[in-house]
Amino acid sequence: QVQLVESGGGLVQPGESLTLSCEVSGGFRSLITYSWHRQAPEKRREFVASISMYSETNYGDSVKDRFIISRDSLKNMVYLHITNLKPEDTGVYYCKSSDGIWGEGTQVTVSS
Fold first, then answer.
1. Is 49 exposed, middle or buried (0-12, 13-18, 19+ CB in 10 A)?
2. Helix, strand or coil for residue 99?
């Protein structure tokens, strides 16, 4: 059974950078798209970024220029690199496969 496990979250200060990881266990499906989503406190979950089997990327309007999604099929990993973190980036970040599997999420808190 395929599972997605996120890691790399934590408490960071504004302006710092962070890389989130999503490990795909049970079989990395190289033919599908993976994506990151986030949910801030008391807000709806929103799309952050996606990456296709051809490494074509797409980003949500609120995160352009500071977020970079990547994938390593050999390591069964998907990454989200975030620069210049802002307090409004605080939330739980989720990894998702295009066939509907979600991870449990990793908390990112941006605060001084």
1. buried
2. coil
